[in-house]
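S.,

Sequence below, as promised.
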Amino acid sequence: MPELALHHVSLEVAPDDVGRTVEFWEVLGFERLSAPDSIAEYVTWLERGASQVHLIHTPEPGVPVVGHAAVVAPGDFEETVGALRAAGFEFEESHELWGERRGFAVGPGGHKVEVMAAPPQPGRAAG
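The prediction came back faster than expected:
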């Protein structure tokens, strides 16, 4: 049996923001994936490794004020931050909690995504 892990996060996105939101996640190393035919008209799926982001197309998306998804930068942290900014996305660096750089990017629909140079060690919340 495979190890249990968080498989995906679903985010509500306005239909007009879907294309730009896909660009945002592509900068973070995700690639578009075909969604099941029965729902493909209403969702866009993206994948990086074993993790997925499901964009749910809805005219009035709910966006958390503080809640967020978190990902490890797909390569060099500084290059990822530069690529986000070059693509026109906001990024604000935050203080290190476990000895690694991190910050928050903001997607087109207002979703915050924490971008980390590396995650904390398993079983350890902070350094």
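Helices lie at 18-27, 77-86.

Coffee later?
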